[in-house]
User: Fold this.
Amino acid sequence: AAPAAAPAPTPTAAPAVAAVAAVLTPPTTPNLAALQRLGITALPVASQPAVVGQQCPVCLVALDANDDDCVILDQCTGHGFHADCIMQCALNDSIKCPICSYIYGRPMTGTQPAGTMKVSRMSDVHLAGYERFGAIVVQYNLPNGIQGPEHPSPGHPYVGTTRVGYLPDCPEGQHVLKLFQTAWERRLLFTIGISTTLGSSAGERVIWNGVHHKTSTTGAHGYPDPTYLTRVLDELAQFGIK
Assistant:
């Protein structure tokens, strides 16, 4: 009879694998705990050697692989920070990466006052550059009101506004419309402040909040503008809306 085969050795984790696992285990520090409460996973910079030694974009101090508070946010590509620095970017239970603008935590919300958003379509209006399509008309009505605690002068009045925006009724324009609606629901399209056009003498009023609209079908504030839909997507992404 053939001799019995020797029993196979019990497998053990390769040292390199064990080392990687140890590196990828997030250390526990007060700042990391604060990030975790926002639902954010942060990995130590040692998990991405290329980041070690780079400057933290917030404080400009080099990132040290031996410092537990030097971290990489898990959805960014090689964007390292000191945990206490990135916590300074927290706003309303969310954090926006200062480099790529990825939004972590809860969706960002704004201070837009009460109003209405109405969408209609005009099949007989054709915007330059999109002549094969009709136009989407977005109408905003934000009446006069009293500022709330989140506004610059709580308890004081503000001047409302009515605005209109035009989009081509093509797939790309329809996509932007959906993002506009999300931004409206999150109170991000408007805010209360001083109009750069009218100046401080006009008082605090409802103003745009950084997401540009085409307020005319033609001319300087209208069409043609072949890069507008791309640019406005970038502006919406700054608020975590994609």
